[in-house]
Design goal:
Bound molecules: glutathione
Order of helices and strands: EHEHEEHHHHHHH
Radius of gyration: 17 Å
Number of strands: 4
Strand content: 5-15%
Helix content: 55-70%
Shape: globular
Distance between the termini: 34 Å
Oligomer: single chain
CATH topology of the largest domain: Glutathione S-transferase Yfyf (Class Pi), Chain A, domain 2
CATH architecture of the largest domain: Up-down Bundle
Largest sheet: 4 strands, mixed
CATH class of the largest domain: Mainly Alpha
Number of domains: 2
Length: about 210
Amino acid sequence: MYRLHGFNLSNYYNSVKLGMIEKGVDFEEVENMPRQDADFKAISPMGKVPCLEVDGQYLTEANVIYDLLEDRHPETPLYPADPFARAKAKELVHYIELYIDLPARRHIPSVFLGAPRNDAAVEEVRPALENGLAALRQLARFDPFVAGSTYGYADIAALFHIGLASQVIQAVYDWDIIAEVPGLAKCLEQIGERPAAKRVLGDLQTAMAALQG
Ligand SMILES: N[C@@H](CCC(=O)N[C@@H](CS)C(=O)NCC(=O)O)C(=O)O
């Protein structure tokens, strides 16, 4: 039995949750906020979510969790079977995490949590994202999915990580980063129409509405 620790506003939590639903894996959601206390760090050493509990053992880092799920539940694959195509899909997941999500995330405190505007971030994030978006234009296939002909974790990462980044960046710079990558808007729209994605996005919207009061 799997227990997925995290919360419905987290893009990384939602990416694992969607993967598990797509795979038809049985799991329980355990609401847990990221935090630095010793109890939580005992299960998630950096205090981050998601954290997957697997028969009393714990695993962190979303893309490592994708790999475990892929190995244990290969019947509904979310990575291509061909080793090189699979590596290229993982490359896209890493690019989306490291060069889109990570820079954009520096603005989460000011956009969502009432923190003051971070002037250093305002200056540094835009050029970092311009690089990340250029890399995405170079690597993404949209054929019709992000990594090519099959749906999988690259699409899931794009849906949640670029979805969040685009909201944050629109708010700070009035800049539409999705429009910077031809084919991305249509691709995200078709991913968001999948029944499993609609369920996770619905839970996200409910959590967002509760946050905004
Ligand atoms: N590299 C981590 C990133 C996870 C992450 O940043 N999660 C956020 C929530 S979306 C979090 O826990 N933030 C709290 C923190 O960074 O201390 C992964 O792939 O799981």
